[in-house]
Amino acid sequence: MNLLWLQSGGCGGCTMSLLCSGARDLPGLLEGAGIHIAWHPSLSEATGEEVRALLAEFESGARPLDLLCVEGAMLTGPEGTGRFHLFAGTGRPMVDWVRALAARARYTLAIGSCSAYGGMSAVGYNPAGALGLQYDGDHRGGLLGADYRSGAGLPVINVAGCPTHPDWVVDSLLALALGQLDETGLDALGRPRFYADQLVHHGCSRNEFYEFKASAEKPGDLGCMMEHLGCKGTQAHADCNVRPWNGHGSCTNGGYACISCTEPGFEAPGHPFASTPKLAGIPVGLPVDMPKAWFVALAALSKSATPPRVKRNAVEERPVIAPAIRPTRIR
């Protein structure tokens, strides 16, 4: 399978993330699954005329294009011409190349939230006209249109994240190579369900503090960051704490609130990232599938039962009270 990777409007962070893959030999891993990296702007030596010739072969169909991976938002400005971003050396807007190549691709993948939904590139006034491949924010459409299907009959596969996890990219590619990812494996926003059916809350090291509603009050505190510091881990679809980054890290483990970067529109939440909007003292964003009345009742009960150890440790930078020692055997 031939893989072509293009970079459009973004920071290149998804490629940086991919280079931190746990695979010691990423190209070798992909080759072992039958995936040949035909060209990647950071991993390939080819440049100039060689790349232009390769693109022409893919566009004409002379060479099969199995996997089209696009990183970064589609820049359609000014006035829909796409000329804010010309593919270097070709004189053609990147959006034109993506439309032409997506029409030939067996599978099309949006790598990262910019390519999937517009992401950080589309925040604010958005003079560049940035949008995703098949979404503009949370609205279907995007550059390729709501009805786009690749050669295999699939919509764009949105490997969303800012940046996306390297394993989400690798596992998506391997699943496609093995014929194990079809439309039933994508959620309602086009994300692979193997990671999007999880919540960042799952496996979070701060879950004891969450259970007792023992909240962090300032950056560096050990407590749950949902109540005061803007954490959306109970709402964000990703497996960041089940599948740690670089083997052991995650935003919440590092003391940073989850900003739900796999979600359309995460870049403009309507409030500062590190604060929790509230109504009558209750967080507006509640855990998914949880009615407000239940949450209020559970929070009140949990806080009344919070052990002194948990309450004290929640507002410290390191544990100051150790758990009590009690026999656990049945007598």
The CATH topology of the largest domain, please?
Rossmann fold
Report how far apart the termini are. 62 Å
The helix count comes to 10
Number of DSSP E strands? 11
The total domain count is: 2
Can you identify the CATH superfamily of the largest domain?
NADH:ubiquinone oxidoreductase-like, 20kDa subunit
Low-pLDDT ranges: none
- Rg over alpha carbons: 22 Å
CATH architecture term of the largest domain: 3-Layer(aba) Sandwich
What proportion of the residues is helical, as a percent range? Answer: 10-25%
Coarse shape: elongated
Q: Kindly report the average pLDDT value.
A: 94
Biggest sheet strand line-up: 2-1-3-5-9
Assess the beta-strand content as a share of residues. 5-15%
Structural class: alpha/beta
Largest beta-sheet characterization: 5 strands, parallel
Q: What is the chain-wise order of helices and strands?
A: EHHEHEEHEHEEEEHHHEEHH
CATH first level of the largest domain: Alpha Beta
How is the quaternary structure best described? single chain
